[in-house]
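for the recovery benchmark. tokens below, seq after
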């Protein structure tokens, strides 16, 4: 197979795969799945359209043969899929796959954390946007108390997971939580990563005015802490990292808006209905499920993936303007997987 030389038109290799295992979620975060859009009538994918564990594993194996080293499981809320531990078990058997991680809102960790740990999952990114009950319950759209997520973060740490916390910061919504969140997670020795609010999908009424940039956040933090930049661990690392003075605890920034990182973007995405996307802000995907269910051979699937990656030239964040944010048709974050 044509593996070693696989890179796209901007010379970016294929290294990461994000698999969205479901488009459903038990939260209705205002910036992702606002309840006015994702209400009772919303047509989520029928079960028959979702890839089975075998189908996802088959594709993942081919992706790994083509250069992927890391797989992130995401969604929607991946813990809504009760066969997730079985899936991790299957993925762990793929030769050459170096890392598997899970992004979750954390609500169901008490239910699945132990079995996920037992099958060998070690890394969790848990999303939490505020410590304040009032702010968080509004943001998650389901009135969920942040205490539940904090308890589950402790639970996951105690099980032995390596945990990072992701906080989306939105102007006028949860900026006031930057300092309490950083103090809390510094004390807990957990990496907190601030994510700039992005114009993913078409449902969150995004505008530049609502973005709190890394620069804004850093200047707040620097009034209280001394922070030293930490060198990137590897090519294509998404988070810009800093370390607190006299401490090994880190904080990070995911700066898709203010400092784009398209030039080293090595990530492909697979939606839960088997479409491959080469950018988080894409309008269209490539239907691998049709090939899978049409009895394509592994070689045919590999050729299709090769073609897609080889002709890729996405660099949306480099090109973002208020106009592209409004005019381009984009796939929703809960569907494509964050
Ligand atoms: N449901 C899981 C969760 O929330 O962790 C996994 C999927 S969620 C789409 C993945 C990540 O995307 C979360 O950390 C979430 O906060 C982030 N996210 C969703 N919409 C976003 C937006 N408009 N801008 C920035 N980050 C966003
Ligand atoms: Fe669900 Fe995650 Fe989107 Fe929130 S960010 S609505 S938890 S998929
Ligand atoms: Fe990669 Fe697209 Fe994000 Fe740029 S905008 S970093 S190409 S996913």
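predicted aa per position
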């Amino acid at each position: 197979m044509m593996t070693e030389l696989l890179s796209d038109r901007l010379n970016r290799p294929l290294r990461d795969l994000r698999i969205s295992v479901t488009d459903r979620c038990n939260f209705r975060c205002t910036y992702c799945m606002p309840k006015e859009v994702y209400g009772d009538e919303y047509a989520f994918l029928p079960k028959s359209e979702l890839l089975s564990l075998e189908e996802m594993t088959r594709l993942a194996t081919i992706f790994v043969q083509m250069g992927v080293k890391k797989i992130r499981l995401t969604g929607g809320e991946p813990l809504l899929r009760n066969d997730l531990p079985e899936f991790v078990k299957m993925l762990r058997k793929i030769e050459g796959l170096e890392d598997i991680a899970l992004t979750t809102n954390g609500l169901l960790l008490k239910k699945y954390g132990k079995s996920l740990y037992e099958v060998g999952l070690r890394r969790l990114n848990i999303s939490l946007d505020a410590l304040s009950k009032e702010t968080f319950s509004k943001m998650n759209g389901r009135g969920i108390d942040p205490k539940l997520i904090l308890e589950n973060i402790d639970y996951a740490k105690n099980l032995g997971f390596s945990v990072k916390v992701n906080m989306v910061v939105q102007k006028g919504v949860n900026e006031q939580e930057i300092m309490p969140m950083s103090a809390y997670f510094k004390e807990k020795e957990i990496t907190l990563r601030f994510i700039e609010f992005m114009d993913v999908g078409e449902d969150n009424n995004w505008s530049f005015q609502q973005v709190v940039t890394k620069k804004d956040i850093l200047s707040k933090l620097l009034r209280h802490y001394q922070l030293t930049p930490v060198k990137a661990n590897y090519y294509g690392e998404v988070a810009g990292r800093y370390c607190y003075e006299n401490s090994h605890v880190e904080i990070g920034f995911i700066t898709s808006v203010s400092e784009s990182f398209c030039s080293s973007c090595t990530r492909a995405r697979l939606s839960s209905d088997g479409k491959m996307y080469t950018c988080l802000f894409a309008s269209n995907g490539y239907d691998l499920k049709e090939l899978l269910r049409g009895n394509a051979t592994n070689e045919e699937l590999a050729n299709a993936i090769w073609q897609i990656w080889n002709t890729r030239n996405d660099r949306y964040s480099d090109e973002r303007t208020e106009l592209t944010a409004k005019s381009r048709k984009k796939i929703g974050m809960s569907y494509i997987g964050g």
